[in-house]
Automatic annotation (TrEMBL):
Coiled coil regions, renumbered to chain: none
GO terms of molecular function: serine-type endopeptidase activity
Species, as recorded: Kangiella sediminilitoris
Signal sequence range: 1-20
UniProt-listed GO biological process terms: proteolysis
Protein name: Prolyl oligopeptidase family protein
Domain of life the protein comes from: Bacteria
Residue span, Peptidase S9A N-terminal domain: 102-372
Domain Peptidase S9 prolyl oligopeptidase catalytic per the UniProt entry, residue ranges: 444-654
InterPro entries per record: 6-blade_b-propeller_TolB-like, AB_hydrolase_fold, Pept_S9A_N, Peptidase_S9_cat, Peptidase_S9A
Record has Metal-binding as a keyword: no
Amino acid sequence: MKNKFSYVLGCLLVSASLTAATVEKRTLNNGNLILEDIPEIPQQLVDDLNRYQNVRSASFNGWSETGNGLYIKTRFGDVSQLHRVLKPGGARHQLTFFQEPVGQVAIRPDSQSLAFTMDAGGSEFSQVFLMDLDSGKYRMITDGESRNGALRWNDDGSKLAYQSTQRNGRSNDIWIADVDSDEKVRHKMVVQAEDGSWWGPSAFSEGGDKLLVQQYVSANQSMVHVKELSSDSLSRVAGNSEKKSRNFALDFTADGESIFILTDRYSDFNQLVVKELASGNETVITKDILWDVNNFILNDAKSMAAFTTNEDGMSKLYLLDTDSLDYVAVDDFPVGVAGSLAFNKNGDKLALQLNTAKTPTDVFVLDIQSDLKSGKLERWTFSEVGGLNTDKFVEPELVHYPTFDQVNGEPRKIPAFVYKPKADGPHPVIISIHGGPESQYRPNFSSTVQLWIEEVGAAVIAPNVRGSAGYGKEYVALDNGFKREDSVKDIGALLDWIKTQPDLDEDRVVVIGGSYGGYMVLASAVHYSDRLKGAVDIVGISNFVTFLKNTQDYRRDLRRVEYGDERDPAMRKHLEEISPNNHVDKIKVPMFIVQGENDPRVPVTEATQMVAALREAGDKVWYMNALNEGHGYRKKENRDVYQQAVVMFFKKHLLP
């Protein structure tokens, strides 16, 4: 009721400013999905897209308590739920049956229970639940109001560390829940964060007397601390506030005297390092790998580790001997994106999730042998792909196009993944811009991209403009502060590159993007309206000042580091100058704006004020708002309508 009431208020504000014709409104999905000025979606289009919208995936969430079966999340209804799989290709036994998707899952050691997180309506104010696997009963152990996550059990399953805003609703503190044999839960705050950064637990030491702590300030600055749980001692062990560097906490060594971390203090990339706590000595393990290390896991004995690297968007898997610090790449590892690594209890199997251009995310298990040798990689889950023949899916080509500035006397090159239809061109073009901004487009399986290629006949280009992660610390900082619009110029350079490609049609180009990518879409419409045919903004920032004012308290300071502090007069002036809603007079392309009412990151007001400004200027805007969603659509019924409307928009503005 609250959501619908706030929506009505938003409509009144928008309607009050209208000078154009009356907005046509209708609702779908039991009144939860509001559509304004969006035409009826033809039934033929709904039918055509049905197969693409019934693709599933399976994410890995941990080994069972015996170390034989696996826990996964997959969707058989409207949202993803927790399942157990007991053998390769085995049945998926559903364990949770909620209206909302299950979030993080942490298997409790030596126990028939687990912890998981879940929010309501996409609010991201996740609560922590304990679930008994024998009975299926569960109970919430947090306060029902704060934001909680980053679950980490100690070795015997008696303590659960987690991040929470329960103290004041704003600060990201670290708490520990003691769960005794009677299943009573007592909570204690062990790290109090006061500076606006994010703090969270990474790992308990053997014996549970120390906690490895992560502090995140920005994409360019993070620190690692060690908390002595028997005292109030909190020691910073990697990174500092004076000289910015990225430092990420991984785990303790077996003796608890050293830690594994990732850091970019010795390179442009995140390297794997082992650090002696007493002496402070650090040994760079992956000094010969000139890419980011981005996943790391130890076996229970802490004698072996597995890690992945991100090499131009593709994952490579390595095994590491923690005594000698020697490592080897796993031979014949599939070309794709891997993550969520975990050894079983015996340490002879490594589970992971893997996504390729032609297969959705599924769970695989690698046999581990002695001397860093590995055996067969076996697929455990076979997610349905809606009857599609994924062998016919278009695979992307990695290109590097020149942009406006130079490096060592040569034009800087921007990496981009290009999907082209197999038919002859010239093809219309869909530019898909990722969010973040410190994120990265990687060549994952995407039924959405293939749907656009098949149904619209368009080429799809996904650029990693400056500010993207994965290409080193210098690249990720190139769009910070007053350099924000330099990333928009990279889209202008992409439009220039499209013009040079004989099989791409420079006169039929649209842009689509979500979150920060939504800002990029709006900014591109401001600067390049004469070169675009349409723009789709999904939960995007329309004004940086109002965004920073209205985003949730727990993330405001984190975003100020990235975008600039609006309390500084010079920066506030700059942020207003680059905010798209202040330049609607320059936008001359059809616009489709998509939003979730409960979005805690980019509040719904960013969408409503942009819609109002465009309509006041006399422009007709397609607007979709889901009252039971947050930062993106997680419920299939809403996501289906959104995807159908996007294809309809593309066909209307890209096809003759």
